[in-house]
Amino acid sequence: MKILDGRKISNQIKEEIAAEVAKMKERGEKVPHLAAVLVGNDGASLTYVGSKVRSCKKIGFESTLIQMPSTTSELELLKKIDELNQNNDIDGFIVQLPLPDQIDTQEVIMAIDPDKDVDGFHPTNFGKMALDMSTFIPATPFGILELLERYKVDTKGKHTVVIGRSHIVGRPMSILMSRKGWPGNSTVTLTHSHTKNIKDIVSQADIVISALGVPNFLKADMVKEGAVVIDVGITRVPDDTKEKGYYITGDVDFEDVSKKASFITPVPGGVGPMTIAMLLKNTLLARERHRSRGKS
Ligand code: GUN
Q: Where is the Tetrahydrofolate dehydrogenase/cyclohydrolase catalytic domain (predicted)?
């Protein structure tokens, strides 16, 4: 069994990006600038956005954090997005999800300029991804592809089972794993809450990608010997014995499943850190595209 070490690989990617930024500075060019919009004060979202902004500083990007109260109206948020779309200093931005109930998430995503949509959530970018065109690939699926590539995991002709059909992970992952090329060329089954015999289907998988958010959902008896297991779940479990009052766990019963898997991602330290690294990579790409189009 081999660990797909997201912490190590994400650090490598960040070093590669930092080296690119150093070259940009030497040439006297503008460095990439990422903005993040956070509406409300959900604990997990605050942690993720804080981590994204800190990573920008570490690798030499500029970053801007925009915090808006949980009572923000859709119109107020759309106005902020318009400002960010118009601001030539900003290469890319994200609106952290989930949003409060009074705001329609799809309206917000559609308001983002596709050229600045470094999350790859806008229908234009999502459509380009599905059509194998060059675009911003959503950071979590992009991070999983990068892990598979850097550990030289064979995906051609394999049966990949994706658990969960979210717009951020499951749906794009199912498209990407079936694409021509590598990592891809897989036969994909996308399972969800209405799937019958999910246990049987998962146990036929060569590659399992679980993005469900249910701790310890995936047990050893559901996994084929030698399977590749990717755990996208990040759940905070309350625990008074921990300093933070919780611990983080994934969808996979790591202890048992790791005995059968050929490759497995740990939680924490697997897919999570890769998501941030790939967001930074998308922001670098946004900067390069803006420069080549002479925007600034
Ligand atoms: N919420 C959970 N994951 C993500 C992500 O990748 N991007 C944004 N914007 N929100 C998220």
A: 4-119
